[in-house]
Amino acid sequence: MKFIFSLCFILVINIISAFANDGYKLWLQYYPIENPSAWQLSVLKNHKIHGDSETISIIKNELELAASGMVSPSKHPTKKDKKNTPNTLLIAKHQDLGLEVLPNTLINQLVDDGYAIFLDKKSGQIIVTAKSDIGLLYGTFRLLQMIQIGDSVPEEGIFQSPKITHRVLNHWDNLDRTVERGYSGFSIWNWHRLPRHIDQQYHDYARANASIGINGTVLTNVNANSLVLTPSYLEKVKALADVFRPYGIKVYLTARFSSPIEIGKLPTADPLDEDVQAWWKEKAKEIYKHIPDFGGFVVKADSEGQPGPHNYKRSQADGANMLAEALEPFGGIVMWRAFVYSEHTPDDRHKQAYNEFKPLDGKFKGNVIVQVKNGAIDFQPREPFHPMFGAMPQTPLMMEFQITQEYLGHDTHLAFLAPLFEEVLKEDTFTNGAGSEVAKVIDGSLHNHKLTAMAGVANIGSDRNWTGHHFHQANWYAYGKMAWAPYISSAEIAEEWLKLTFTTDKNFVGPIQKMMLASREMVVNYMTPLGLHHIMAESHHYGPGPWVTGGRRADWTATYYHQASETGIGFDRTKTGSNALEQYAEQIQKLWGDVETIPEEHLLWFHHLPWSHKLQNGKSLWDNIAIHYQKGVDEAKANVKLWETVQGKIDHERFAHVHSFLKIQAEEAVWWKDACLTYFSQFSKMSLPDGVEEPTHDLEYYKSIRPRHVPGI
Ligand code: GCV
């Protein structure tokens, strides 16, 4: 009877999941494990959890949920199982363990939200322990992930502390629920209904973030609205903070620099004005009254029309320090963005942030961290790492990655971003000689900073599957994993995410993992190969626009960046040009300054070269550009075919959704290739090499394509 019941259970679950899965459950699917092993069963079925707090209740619920999804209710370890694999699960804070556990020293070394998972041979139990309830929550999620993907607890145990303290999402969400550069629906924050209505999605959001170690959320757009700092909005923010707290997530807000004028009725927002300083101090006090663990402020100042200290001829440090002083008594921090540039500064945009911030090194208060985008321009499909990394040893710097794909095809183009994140984190800044990777700047180890942080611009919206493309959930997942462990590999993340989200079937995971890992390079190829950048359509940034020129700001055009003419293409950032290269360490200047030694992927970022210039493969620059575009197109088309081969291995709903998006991507890869090659060929005047398909239309046709109502502007 029991057997038949179990069989029916598995059958029903499989049938349901084969057809309907809208992706809402993300990587927390907890789908049935085909043949659960004795240890998986005993851990899921027999657990003891010590403690009593909201977080502990969340842990209990999570275990129940996972157990009911992964194994049939009637399945229990047999007596024989119990004899051979006695381990049951004990979850308890280190101080409550009450066991003579061996790895005490390793556990003592954990930071507050770190965790340990190990087999205690004496008691035969799997133990999840930590110094805090949040650490226990992280450890539980880790263990459940291992159970789902079929990993066992290694002999030596797992002892994990995050390398970075503040692992935050930056929502570019506006109070009217539009999302700047957000492509998966509206903002999930329903400000109108808050604080009276708490949507279940807020809990689910917090749970998903906690499951990958994210511990902070900046609720509002960096193009900020001071309204969020008014009393009625602070009530709403408090409501969200209360939901997130037991999941270990702090809220942060973006502070509009001119708030003292706009909502404080002061005549100025000058950071050195005493009334302004007092206003921010009072505001901080008010915020902390509502939200005692408020994380702090993120500030975009003096950039793209946002107000800032420049308005009063003050420095970025003056602005940041004023806010830092207001937050200091409460333990808050200021994440001050380095994305500062102006069309009125007559210098290469690449150089402006470095030029402004480097002289301020060491001038920021202790609770300020400077938030630097991964590259010096703006989240392009590929950028060399930002020269500020490594250049400000006395100032904590944090990384800002963009998870939302403003420049990588928005929500419909598959681009697994972990390889982009990994590439930047691994770059050697050479600040303290070889081995001074960007990851070491970020985790504080290179310059001995305790204040460490990483930000990811969220790709989350009100779409049922959260991120538009199902595979873009992987970018949220990858960001969380890398913020916790910036040295982890993309391949590992992709495999884990696929197994948690879809299936452990190796005939699915193997080929699709490869597809994911190659996808970002594929996008680089059909959009901006060989160091080209910023050649997208203007304003909405969707589709190609190498012809974009003129207008109010040269630094928002494509022609400013590609500099294509009959003599060649590329931005000369060497000594003969803007000399942005000078902002990097000497070793890099030497390597990248020479067209023979610069990695070809950065070639046109730093060099302006004739179309006939020969690359390493002996072919001309023009031929190489064309070949890269074609490669991107071929891969995008091949992905559609590859995806078709996995039909039936996962549920139909997600299969069909991804299939349709991959087809859009393949079509738009052709659009990118044809538009860019048609445009550039008017300068190169060279024919396309063998194997590169001729564009089907003339330039006017491509220029006339004007997508309307593109979301996320
Ligand atoms: C939030 C780019 C985007 C803007 C964004 C800005 C930023 O310029 O196009 O939408 O504004 O970056 O990071 O501040």
UniProtKB/TrEMBL annotation:
Residue ranges of every copy of the Glycosyl hydrolase family 67 C-terminal domain listed in the record: 467-691
Top-level taxon of origin: Bacteria
Alpha glucuronidase N-terminal domain boundaries: 26-143
Enzyme Commission identifier(s): 3.2.1.131
InterPro entries: A-glucoronidase_C_sf, GH, Glyco_hydro_67_aGlcAse, Glyco_hydro_67_aGlcAse_N, Glyco_hydro_67_C, Glyco_hydro_67_cat, Hex-like_dom2
Keyword tRNA processing: no
Pfam families reported in the protein's UniProt record: Glyco_hydro_67C, Glyco_hydro_67M, Glyco_hydro_67N
Reaction(s) the record says it catalyses: Hydrolysis of (1->2)-alpha-D-(4-O-methyl)glucuronosyl links in the main chain of hardwood xylans
Keywords: Carbohydrate metabolism, Glycosidase, Hydrolase, Polysaccharide degradation, Xylan degradation
Subunit composition and interactions: Homodimer.
Protein name: Xylan alpha-1,2-glucuronidase
